[in-house]
Amino acid sequence: MREILFRGKTKAGEWVFGCYISTGCDAPAIVWGDGVQAEVDPETVGQYTGRKDMYGLKIFDGDNLEVYQDFRPSSTGGVKTFIVQNHVNRGYPWNTYLLHMDKARIIGNIHDNPELVESEE
Questions:
Q1: Mean pLDDT of the 74-81 span
Q2: What are phi and psi of 80, to 5 degrees?
Q3: Euclidean distance between CA atoms 70 and 121, whole angstroms
Q4: Global pTM?
Q5: Cβ 110 vs Cβ 104: under 8 Å
Q6: What Cα–Cα distance (Å) separates residue 23 from each residue in 14, 38, 42?
């Protein structure tokens, strides 16, 4: 079974990882070890996809990935970058690109690296 895990950024700018809960207010919270709870910016909350990159790092919604395409038979090689959002990239399931996880790596995320989003568009 897939691990259910969320991440979010606190108002202090720190990433926290754990279970997502709704506080009934505008700011949701993430709870981790021993019930410690932190309010997070709802715009930064992302769920773990259940997949890891070539270095074993967990991939979350909002991560920007770089995928080496030389594994695709019709490909001429090269690199493709995209943002993981709700497991879909421009209408195509992002898992299509990640059949070979040894070819993908996290290069940032939409919250810490907005310049990657701008270059993608």
A1: 61
A2: -120, 135
A3: 23
A4: 0.77
A5: no
A6: 19, 11, 11
